[in-house]
């Protein structure tokens, strides 16, 4: 039998089981994708519920794979986190989002650009320095940048997280608590962690079968809670006109979702900016 390099690899992969082999392929491809610049950011608009005005964008990473096409972050972020690649990838996302904020003159327009932060990034000692570097490099004010953390990120080590949050807030960037309500101790966190924005997870918006008032109780409660703590509340996953009307009635300040705008490539997302051509 022939034993060239390729066959040896194939035999080895087969022995590991398909899943492990596929994962190793993905990891190798990810590494290459970073070098080749295959990642892109899409931007999803966030809107003032009362006026309909654009208030900012959330940056969402996608992988433009040369063979498999556009790959969603749910497929590769976990692999990037396990392999250490999330460091350089997260750094690229941060700098690219800041660069875009500058190009869109987010400063003058009073818009925020939100960036998702992986727990692995957040736990890095020099993360605040990386953020400061990205702001300086792009030349934008820190108020333009909103960092989105999930409850689990903060809960891994609350005292270490508090210190990291102090450092970030000292820079002047905003902190959003993402997917609020889906974690283990949402309420106690809110009492102890200083944040600026509360993003209510989309699972709290009523589905087509949730016709009675009880389906809305938690949504209403979270909007009130955020308002009472003087936080900017963003409802995620606004998919229908009914959702939008409900949020308006509840006094929820900000909304994000497919009904308002899908995540779009920068060039298309730019069309959401008011009078970009005249300014
Ligand atoms: P997320 O931070 O909760 O982002 C919102 C996700 O919900 C996005 O999926 C978005 O496309 C989707 N979405 C927005 N509006 C609607 C809606 O009305 N209905 C429904 N059903 N979905 C909606 P996406 O882009 O696939 O991102 C998935 C997750 O991947 C994000 O969830 C975030 O946790 C993570 N992610 C995305 N970009 C990054 C990144 O740059 N860094 C890190 N660490 N994680 C990221
Ligand atoms: Ca998010
Ligand atoms: Ca979310
Ligand atoms: Ca999520």
UniProtKB/TrEMBL annotation:
Annotated organism of origin: Deinococcus malanensis
Domain of life: Bacteria
Coiled coil listed as a keyword: yes
Name of the protein in its database record: GGDEF-domain containing protein
Record lineage: Bacteria, Thermotogati, Deinococcota, Deinococci, Deinococcales
Keyword annotations: Coiled coil
Keyword hit for Coiled coil: yes
Domain EAL: from-to ranges: 23-277
